[in-house]
Amino acid sequence: MNVYPQPRQSNAADHLIPFAATLLPQSTMNRKRILIVDDSTIILKTLSMKLKNSGYEVLTAADGGTAVSMVRCEKPDLVLLDISFPPDVAHGGGVAWDGFLIMSWLRRMDEAKNIPIMIITGAEPEKFKERAMAAGAVGYFQKPINNEELLASIRETIGEAPAVPPTAA
Q: pTM, whole model, 2 decimals?
């Protein structure tokens, strides 16, 4: 009587990698990361959905401290930044962040100084656009945002080829 277990015979299926497993890591690794910084949950959700549907990985922050930390840890390819934020009362009355202070912090961080920043705001452009561009913003979008213009500007800024319409045959 043989008490030792018999070796299992392998078949070709044991060595196959599921098709989905071969696609997932590569597709997520090549996606550009965009950080949206806005105190409005509606803007964060709607813009996140639009960008995800356009193939981007999306990160979000609702205040300046979180934004600076996310940029440091996650190193996004682009930041979409609101200008106006309520005081950080919920965070113990710390720094009263606004988009200009966030930009200033990011420009002083080695890991963030070359990340492009686009402003998305409901504030009057006459009051802030020139100042935002002088502070280093590469784009300025007024809310409500024209999503197609924003996407075209994002693609151009992060070096993705714009979508080429098919030629008529």
A: 0.76
